[in-house]
């Protein structure tokens, strides 16, 4: 019940910010959400024993969201700064893993959220679609997987997920989110179905990737801020992987 109530509160807020809020409200909310996600990632990374990536990640992430130049230049500078700062580690064997955790976190969290800015600039409906497609898939995955799930999808990473639930997630997402894309954006049905299926699969991989990180860190949830869901990263792990797929499609479709 807490999970449903949390979703009922969040969905109208997300829809307003994505579709109707002015740019500065949208950007402020996006930065706040990205910071919350990175805070939880920072905590997960710290549990691996190499030290938390630290405050530089927030500064670099904010820069990546707002940077107007070539992204590779900013990321190259971040990688070099991370390597220099990692030399402060008490154990030199921790220097490279610590730097890698920092760069990975910035790309994983802020790099993916940057796609949300580009999608909204193209058309707010694209962003709403990208945010909602895995929510739609979760409906099918929950009900079908709970009743008919027999074959484990990734038992070492997420024992409760099944192939049946994964297939239902793709189908539900294609039906609901694909229809949204056709109606509000106007792309052909076949393109909407193909893109939604690909983005849903990416989102499911994102869910498993975050589960693997938490399992490696010995954590059940990334946080407790969202009742019934855990942390912000638990709620948007699939969205982070889906956003670049949708943005790549927008670039391809022109």
Q: Provide the domain count.
A: 1
Shape: globular
Judged by helices, strands and strand pairing, the structural class is: mainly alpha
Q: Estimate percent helicity.
A: over 70%
Report the sheet-strand fraction.
under 5%
Strand line-up across the major sheet:
1-2
What would the average pLDDT be, to the nearest integer? 90
Q: What's the end-to-end separation, in Å?
A: 42 Å
Describe the structure.
It is a single chain. The chain has about 250 residues and is mainly alpha-helical. It is about 80% helix and about 5% strand. It has one domain. It has helices spanning about 1-20, 25-50, 55-65, 70-85, 95-120, 125-150, 165-185, 190-215, 230-254; strands at about 150-155, 160. Strand 1 and strand 2 form a beta hairpin. Helix 2 runs parallel beside helix 8 (about 190-215) and helix 5 packs across helix 9. The longest helix has 29 residues, at about 190-215. It is globular. The protein starts with a helix and ends with a helix.
